[in-house]
């Protein structure tokens, strides 16, 4: 098959690689209908992560089941499925506790920007729709593979509750979904920190009541003003840098929690401040499967329209251009079609 | 008056200092009936904190109100009161959110190991008993000033719930109260990490179902065995060192929370592990006032007997010996009488 691969920082290719196959009886192989580029894919692209030269890249996709292993009971070829980027048996103690991203038998999608993807633990991971969805629904369904549940996880981890004030750090796709999640979970005030007009617009559509364009110290002062000097009831850290984390703790009110879902890079947590202010930290790799049934229902009922986050659609063969567009912030989120 | 002072690491004195006075109309001055030495007092004693040479030391006490400021409505001279080590107006947004330790108008007890102590925000801070308690109750009431609610805060912050497994790191007085709190909050299994026979005995009395004497890597392996490889549902970090924190995160199951109340010294939080395992951190300076009414009720009804943690009682004039005894681990917790 052909798939997107990474060879070095900045070196993305779309090329021939071995087909994924059923390796375990619990596996499925999915023919990708749509994949996309994640903000976290930019870490290796920008040289911040180690690279296994020539490896496939891409962990977000939806598609149609092509083949299943002998032990797969709930899916068969032809089913349209959402593929959580982290796979889970959904039966181990961690899955049962709602942390499917720490499944004792878990795995990850490795070729979501390719023509086919192998899903380990198909029964515990995949969620299917009734029949083939309308093409117009594909972008929204695709967000359920990672980015929407990840933003949701930030909000849940931050303890967003009806009536409170939530601050969202980061206006990438995950941050925008943090805004949507905080709004859906009933926050009365959702403050998006964003400097980009196009992303501010999506944030407003997703439910942001306020937008703060300032960053760092000035950003913190603006939040203090907006919250009467008290600070935010919940803070969603959706970037993963030390600066973003520091801003998060600076704007969190005592007793609140920073929910973090940005893969941490160079983050040094301010433990003294956390202690003195009683500000907690929670979150991590999103247990997508936990949130999927609820979020799928919200998508299918048109309660939300998450697909609008895709502002660039390309043929999968042009994935290198997709990476460039996201790296240069010409696109918020790039959808790839085989 | 005479009070305990610190001049340099290891240099504790009991000497004449100026009497505390009513400085603000919301103040009270309390005649100390009993004070005690806190594990956190050992940080400056051991040279790990800056010292203001000659300053009074000691933040835990109970006593009788001696004098009140003009704005104090709820207390009058003669009332027996428990003095939370951190004072709070109990009306500001942080207090109303249950984080009295971050009160916008807060303060701290500064001479709890002296004959008198000034309490700022008397109305919002103090809790009184009906009449003068029996002398036998004084030790238990004294624990309510800091150490018992602090252990309680660790358990609450860690999210201890009925039926689960809680691990308590640290067998100082705070850790022992973490054990008591976890047990009172319904944890089915309370695992105390302790190497000292006398402290293990108190831990058992306080409700520990298991004691793990191993530390570091071996300690983690023992907890893994005891939890079927899953890890603990809640972890209470009651020390404040990097080693203790690392152990806490090593034994916490994915999705759980480390509740921390040990003043952090040299702690570097394992943010990557926290992210990958979805293990959160919560806690900090205990909002004593929040828990006081409930804990006082438990003490007065004899549901708990926290006073047993005091294994050395000295005249206040011998406070230097009290520090030596705690520093050398000859005593778990030292009670001082004027």
Can you tell me about this structure?
The structure is a homodimer of 338-residue chains. Chain A has 338 residues and is an alpha/beta fold. The first copy, chain A, has twelve helices and 18 strands. In chain A, strands 3, 5, 6, 9, 10, 17 and 18 form a seven-stranded mixed sheet that branches. In chain A, helix 6 (173-184) runs parallel beside helix 7 (197-205). The mean pLDDT of chain A is 97. Chain A binds chain B through residues 93-94, 97-99, 101-102, 157, 228, 230, 253-255, 257, 260, 263-264, 267-269, 271-272, 274-285, 287, and chain B through 93-94, 97-99, 101-102, 157, 228, 230, 253-255, 257, 260, 263-264, 267-269, 271-272, 274-285, 287. Chains A, B: Its cofactor is Zn(2+).
How much helix, percentage-wise, in residues of chain A?
Answer: 25-40%
Oligomer: homodimer
The CATH architecture term of the largest domain in chain A is: Alpha-Beta Complex
Top CATH class of the largest domain in chain A: Alpha Beta
Count the E strands of chain A: 18
Query: Radius of gyration of chain A over alpha carbons?
Result: 19 Å
**End-to-end CA span of chain A:** 11 Å
Q: And the CATH topology of the largest domain in chain A?
A: Quinone Oxidoreductase, Chain A, domain 1
Number of domains of chain A: 2
Instruction: Output the number of helix runs of chain A.
Output: 12
Reported for the largest beta sheet of chain A, the result is: 7 strands, mixed
Low-confidence runs of at least 5 consecutive residues of chain A: none
Secondary-structure element order of chain A, N to C: EEEHEEEEHEEHEHHEHEHEHEHEHEHEHE
